[in-house]
Amino acid sequence: MSDPSIKKIFTVSLLGSQRVKCMAAYNGEALVIQSMEAVSGLFGTWRKPLEQECKKNAESGFIVLVEERGTAFFSQYGSQVLFDDIDPEEKRTYQNIAFDLYYSLTAMGDTSGNRHGNLVVASGLERHLLTGNVVNVEQDEKGRNRYDIEPDRFSGYHRSMLLAVLAAQFFNPPTDEYLQEFFKYIGGTPDKPKPLRTIEAVIASRNANGGFQ
């Protein structure tokens, strides 16, 4: 049995210049980006395979986050995230929150080889790390980081990686399978706890308020 304290993560970005899916894992300290792959071709050629992959991963206990608008073809098997939505508690966009967490991860620990602080990427994926020519970091009047993005250089690879960061550090696992496996692992069967923060609650809040401006 796999250790349920390790979050298994599958993300898909469909709104950037490239459609990209990402597989990752988080052990509470380090986020490991295991693979990233472009989703290419005509919609009819990749819709069904991607749906099946989202469904399979969700059933296997992965946290599945999908960046898509309109009909939830893929996020029906996980959760929908739009970077320009505002988190009702943080009062910041998910994009800014993701950047905050990304730079916090990369600032912790040593940088050597494929390890960039507490962000570890598989060989060959280093070229998709955020650099100064992709995003410029400044501070707003409250001393918080503000991110000036170069749209032409902010790719689907960056977006899917940031989704993985959000899945790792911001959203609690929403799946019953995760909770059941966790309680088996620790040898107990307590009542299912309420997550402190689930993306379903965030989406419900957005929908109840007619969307965030």
From TrEMBL:
Q: Please report the name of this protein according to its UniProt entry.
A: Uncharacterized protein
Q: What species was this sequence derived from?
A: Endozoicomonas lisbonensis
